[in-house]
Known about the structure:
Blueprint: E1 6-10, E2 16-21, H1 22-28, E3 32-40, E4 46-51, E5 61-62, E6 65-68, H2 75-87, E7 94-107, E8 110-122, E9 133-139, H3 141-150, H4 157-166
Parallel strand pairs: 3-8
Antiparallel strand pairs: 1-2, 3-4, 3-6, 4-5, 4-9, 7-8
Amino acid sequence: MSQDEIVDIVNQNDEVVGTVSKGEAHEKGLLHRTVIAEIIGSDGKWTLVKQAADRQDADQFVSPVGGHVQSGETLEDALKREASEEYGLSGDFQFKLIGKRIFNREVNGKKENHLFILYEIYTDANPVLNAESVAFERYTKEEILMQIGATPGKFGAAFHIVLSAFY
């Protein structure tokens, strides 16, 4: 999604209150929607991806699917688009809505004020890495919690929020 693409601005109740470009939303810190997904295999392991050096959580492990919801796009359509773009999933796949949480930070000169809409996607497929991700690893939930306690810098800030807010 380019900085010129249009996103819906929402209030804390996830009600649309306007539309602006993604760039303007980040410049002004306006609350807008982002879908996030944890990928969980049949063995219960989560797949995390390591962000490329030019990304907001550079060289850290994060949720493998995440991106902006375009203006007027349904959450399900945004999830499917992002899962295809960022993980290589196509066609039908199983998923479940987990919940919503506001995540607000300044990073790389942007005021990211995102309403995270978290999903779990259930698949054993390996990710197709792209320019945003350089590697992936699989962990049980217990391994993630142990490692995040021992080496918190290994994981991106947004992933810390996802874990503390939803798990």
